[in-house]
């Protein structure tokens, strides 16, 4: 009889399937969350830019307006921190443009970061680099 | 008996060998499928897509800024777009360090037909303008190519153009009941032949009606949709008062909300005494 051989064959196939089950682990939810936040952050900056408001806020130092625009556009449980730099990476904005408990940024492992660039405003070429950091509160 | 046992043993070995082959096939196929499915996530395409999108939007904005500079400056620099794009290429590399972002550009040159404009728009270094006509326009046009070395992305091209046109459709001089004025009917559109409908009086920094005894410049403005029996489009009606003698020419200057300027001019003015 081939009972022993059949059992061994079954064990081999089961081992292969079990190996695959552990091997094919899905990506962590943190990585997924970060990707989603990046997408949301970029879309919001892009939308505000399309309305020709982003450049006005940045170049006229309308920090309260840009904070309000982001607070209104982002989900309530998402905290943000926006830094603006010139092309040599010197910080421009003061005070900080932020919302939510900023300690979450240092404690959370899933902080999304979006870099957005503005070339200038009206007739002047004078680039600004916007770095928007997002985290789920 | 021995022959039969040998044959049975061979059949048993065959089952094990078949199971091993099946296992190897399952593992191999699954590995390939898994690798294919998760490739998108591992490569973080979202990050590259946002960079491409950001650079694309900013490059289009750069065309606007260049055109605004070209049209607003009294002695315009014809190389303004070339200068801006050369600087832009260096600055984008600096803004995204480590990604290997590289840009190239091609500014429009020569005749290009668009928007039904006859003769075709004649570009030089990405810029063109025709002012002081009843229909005036300004435009900028460039093709930009993006390469991102870290993502293996090369030769992603897109064309951007910016356009602003103002047409003086009609101008009428009214002289009835001692209240002399000129009504100017103007339409404004931009790229995509989209009507510009958000203009205010402040977007017309200068409206001049030359007449025999001087130049009238005081005006009010209103916007409405003109029905198909008239102009069949959004019209800005500019009313210039104190035109006390026969008008000879009209000059309207427009500065849109993007900072792009154009100047229309006409000598075609009809008199309506009603």
Tell me about this structure.
- The complex is a heterodimer of chains A (137) and B (274).
- Chain A is α+β, with helices and mostly antiparallel strands and 137 residues long.
- Helices cover 47% and strands 26% of the residues of chain A.
- In chain A, strand 3 and strand 4 form a beta hairpin.
- Chain B has three domains: 35 residues; 119 residues, no CATH class; 106 residues, Immunoglobulin-like.
- Chain B contains three helices and 15 strands.
- The mean pLDDT of chain B is 89.
- At the A-B interface, helix 1, helix 2, strand 3 and strand 4 of A face helix 1, helix 2 and helix 3 of B.
List the helices and strands and how they pair.
The complex is a heterodimer of chains A (about 140) and B (about 270).
Chain A lengths: L2 H21 L5 H22 L3 H6 L3 H11 L4 E9 L10 E3 L3 H5 L4 E10 L2 E13 L1
Antiparallel strand pairs in A: 1-2, 1-4, 3-4
Chain B lengths: L1 H41 L2 H28 L7 H16 L5 E7 L2 E3 L8 E3 L3 E4 L4 E14 L4 E22 L6 E10 L3 E2 L10 E6 L2 E3 L2 E8 L6 E9 L5 E9 L5 E6 L3 E3 L2
Index terms:
heterodimer; A: 137 residues; alpha+beta; four-stranded antiparallel β-sheet; 5 helices; 47% helix; elongated; B: 274 residues; Immunoglobulin-like; 3 domains; nine-stranded mixed β-sheet; 15 strands; 31% helix; 40% strand
Distance between the termini of chain A: 65 Å
The number of helical runs of chain B is: 3
- Work out the strand percent of chain A: 25-35%
Number of domains of chain B: 3
- Overall residue-averaged pLDDT value of chain A: 86
The most extensive contact between chains is: A-B, 45 and 49 residues
* Arithmetic mean of pLDDT of chain B: 89
Spans of chain A of at least 5 consecutive residues whose pLDDT stays below 50 are none
Biggest sheet record of chain B: 9 strands, mixed
Q: From the helix content, strand content and strand pairing of chain A, which structural class follows?
A: alpha+beta
Helix content of chain A: 40-55%
Number of strands of chain B: 15
Task: Give the strand tally of chain A.
Answer: 4
Task: Give unreliable regions of chain B as ranges.
Answer: none
- Could you estimate the helical fraction of the residues of chain B in percent? 25-40%
The radius of gyration computed from the alpha-carbon positions of chain A, rounded to a whole number of angstroms, is: 24 Å
User: What percentage of the residues of chain B does DSSP assign to strands (E)?
Assistant: 35-45%
Multimeric organization: heterodimer
């Amino acid at each position: 009889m081939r009972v022993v051989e059949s059992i061994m064959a079954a064990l081999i196939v089961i081992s292969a399937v079990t190996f695959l089950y552990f091997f094919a682990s899905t990506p962590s939810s943190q990585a997924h969350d970060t990707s989603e936040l990046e997408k949301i952050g970029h879309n919001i900056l892009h939308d505000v830019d399309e309305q020709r408001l982003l450049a006005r806020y940045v170049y006229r130092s309308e920090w309260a307006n840009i904070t309000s625009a982001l607070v209104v556009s982002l989900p309530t449980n998402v905290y943000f921190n926006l830094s603006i730099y010139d092309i040599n990476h010197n910080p421009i904005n003061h005070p900080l443009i932020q919302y939510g408990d900023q300690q979450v940024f240092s404690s959370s492992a899933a902080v999304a970061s979006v870099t957005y660039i503005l070339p200038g405003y009206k007739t002047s070429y004078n680039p600004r680099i916007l770095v928007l950091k997002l985290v789920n509160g | 008996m021995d022959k039969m046992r040998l044959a049975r043993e061979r059949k048993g070995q065959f089952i094990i060998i078949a199971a091993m082959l099946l296992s190897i096939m399952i593992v191999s196929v699954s590995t390939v499928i898994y690798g294919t499915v998760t490739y998108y996530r591992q490569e973080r395409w979202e990050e590259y897509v946002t960079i491409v999108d950001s650079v694309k939007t900013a490059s289009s904005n750069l065309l606007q800024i260049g055109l605004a500079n070209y049209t607003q400056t009294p002695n315009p620099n014809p190389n303004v777009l070339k200068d801006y794009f050369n600087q832009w290429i260096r600055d984008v590399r600096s803004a995204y360090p480590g990604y290997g972002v590289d840009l190239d550009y091609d500014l429009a040159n020569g005749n290009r037909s668009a928007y039904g404009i006859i003769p075709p728009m004649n570009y030089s270094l990405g810029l063109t303008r025709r002012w002081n006509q009843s229909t005036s326009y300004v435009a900028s046009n460039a093709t930009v190519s993006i390469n991102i070395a870290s993502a293996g992305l090369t030769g992603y091209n897109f064309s951007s153009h910016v356009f602003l046109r103002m047409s003086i459709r009609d101008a009428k001089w009214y002289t009835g009941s001692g209240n002399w004025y000129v009504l100017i009917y103007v339409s404004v559109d931009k790229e995509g032949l989209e009507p510009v409908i958000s203009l205010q009086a402040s977007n017309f920094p200068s409206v001049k009606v030359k007449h025999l005894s001087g130049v009238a410049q005081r005006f009010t403005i209103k916007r409405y949709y003109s029905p198909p029996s008239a102009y069949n489009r959004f019209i800005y009606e500019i009313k210039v008062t104190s035109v006390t003698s026969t008008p000879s020419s009209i000059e309207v200057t427009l500065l849109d909300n993007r900072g792009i300027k154009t100047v229309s001019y006409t000598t075609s003015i009809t008199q309506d005494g009603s």
